[in-house]
């Protein structure tokens, strides 16, 4: 990542292993998210090894290609020895056979291709100067290899695809409980992007694992995906989600509180879920989520003449109607969380940035010049909420008022 003033330039549209050739009108959204937690690191990096769960295979809890799921665990110490952060990895979705077949040849669909160790930063850091409230907790990064936010249940024999996200979730939780999580005094389920959606879907299930005496909460980072109109008036993300839900058998694992009233695709959208989550939850989101702007609001298929290109790569080149389009999206996000925000147990941090996944990158989680709403950084806000030190309902003023952002410039 290189900085230019207060900007972090991240090419979130980067495709991998020639995936550019697979981007089509109906399937481009299954492209792989930028890896926000670097697999490499310097001398002071905390490199945590991958642990596979071989026993999961006999339970059918497997990645898209049938390989065992995995996670990275760094043990807690001192006052945090009996506290746990479980962080669910993100990485888009696959919504049809072709994209799922491709995905199983990557780390997002097979443990054969996963990095053998990952650098723990941000909410996973073990340094108090980088992660003041959770640095000495047991910290886990759960690898994402099912393509449906840990929620699918199905099998395609012809193409040898296993849609077993829900079983992966259960197998990983069973494994971690056996590794000491059953003794947790405090537990936080977090996740970024598709993992942020998964943390919403599984929040109450996570709470149910523990006795009432355990303090259990959930954090969704960049998981507030909206059923929004794109610049051409279409519903890019709804079309994508419909494929995911149908292909991967997600419906049976969606909350009945939603599916009894709405269609299954609607119940994969967080805006229709968050108000019914009973466990305390914190929503961390950029008001102009960079991934949604690039892939849902202004996908290339909806802008064939490139009228939005200059605006996408440089906000200063946006005209007034384009800025209004972004503000309407922000207003839709704020409307979506009104009921959720009304609960005292829930927390909120919506900053007016063009960013995505702010809990994983150190620079956006907790540094001297990290993004702020008021005078509070992301990490401090999450900590204040988790430990009940303060009520946190932080909503930024509209763009371009926030000068603390590390925006993702989409190329």
TrEMBL record:
Localization per Swiss-Prot or TrEMBL: Secreted, Cell wall
Keywords on record: Cell wall, Cell wall biogenesis/degradation, Hydrolase, Secreted
Pfam families (alphabetical): PAE
InterPro entries noted in UniProt: PAE/NOTUM
E.C. designation(s): 3.1.1.-
Domain of life from the UniProt record: Eukaryota
Keyword RNA-binding: no
Family label: Belongs to the pectinacetylesterase family.
PANTHER family xrefs: NOTUM-RELATED, PECTIN ACETYLESTERASE
Biological function: Hydrolyzes acetyl esters in homogalacturonan regions of pectin. In type I primary cell wall, galacturonic acid residues of pectin can be acetylated at the O-2 and O-3 positions. Decreasing the degree of acetylation of pectin gels in vitro alters their physical properties.
Name of protein: Pectin acetylesterase
Species for this entry: Hibiscus sabdariffa
